[in-house]
Design a protein that fits this description.
Length: 186
C-alpha cells in the first residue's frame, strides 16, 4: 500500500539508504534492492519502457524493453545519470542491472503536469542550465511529465534520448523555462 509521507521524510530516508549502499558494489546493491516490493506503478509513458515502479517511497526502478532500442536508451540514461551524479536537480543512480535493463534511481517527486512551480523556480532553472552546460548534457525530452518537484526542488528525469550537442542544451533549457513560466501564469 502506498503510504503518504512528507517529501522531507523521503529525502531523509533516501540519504540514509544511499549512505548505507555507498560502499557496496553494483552486484551487492542489486541483491539488496531485489528484496524490495513494488508499492506503486507509474503510468507507462514511454514506448521503450516496460514500466517505472516506486519501491519503498524513495527508490524508483525503471525497466526498459530488452531489445536493441531499449538497450540504447538504457545506456544513454545510465551515462547521463553518471554525469549528473550528486546534483540535487537530477535523479541519483543507485544501481544498474545490464542483464535485465533495469535502472534503480532516486525518487524525484510528482511531475509538473498537475503542480505549480516553487517560488524560486527561475534560479533553479539557472542552476540546471549551468549543470547541463558544464556536463555537456542535453536531456532532449523536456515535457511536463519529465519535470518533477520534490521538497521544493525542481528535478529533471528521463534521459533516454539525451545527447551532448551544445546548441540543443540551450534550446532544452529554454523549453524548460517556457514550460514553468506557462505553469505560473495559468
Amino acid at each position: 500500500m502506498f503510504r503518504n509521507v512528507s517529501e522531507i521524510d523521503i529525502e531523509v530516508r533516501l540519504q540514509q539508504e544511499i549512505n548505507k549502499m555507498s560502499s557496496w558494489n553494483n552486484r551487492k546493491r542489486l541483491e539488496y534492492i531485489g528484496k524490495r516490493k513494488v508499492i506503486k506503478k507509474f503510468q507507462n509513458q514511454n514506448i521503450y519502457s516496460n514500466g517505472v515502479f516506486l519501491l519503498d517511497n524513495f527508490l524508483v526502478a525503471k525497466k526498459l524493453h530488452t531489445n536493441m532500442t531499449g538497450y540504447v536508451f538504457w545506456k544513454n540514461e545510465i551515462n547521463a545519470l553518471k554525469r549528473v551524479l550528486n546534483n540535487k536537480h537530477f535523479p541519483q543512480l543507485i544501481a544498474a542491472d545490464p542483464n535485465n535493463l533495469i535502472i534503480y534511481m532516486t525518487y524525484c517527486g510528482q511531475s509538473f503536469e498537475n503542480l505549480i512551480p516553487p517560488p524560486n523556480w527561475k534560479s533553479q532553472v539557472d542552476d540546471i542550465k549551468a549543470v547541463l552546460l558544464a556536463k555537456q548534457l542535453n536531456p532532449n525530452d523536456i515535457l511536463p511529465r519529465n519535470v518533477c518537484c520534490l521538497a521544493g526542488t525542481i528535478k529533471l528525469i528521463d534521459f533516454g534520448l539525451s545527447n551532448v550537442r551544445y546548441s540543443e542544451i540551450v534550446r532544452s533549457v529554454n523549453k524548460l523555462y517556457q514550460l514553468l513560466l506557462r505553469k505560473t501564469q495559468g
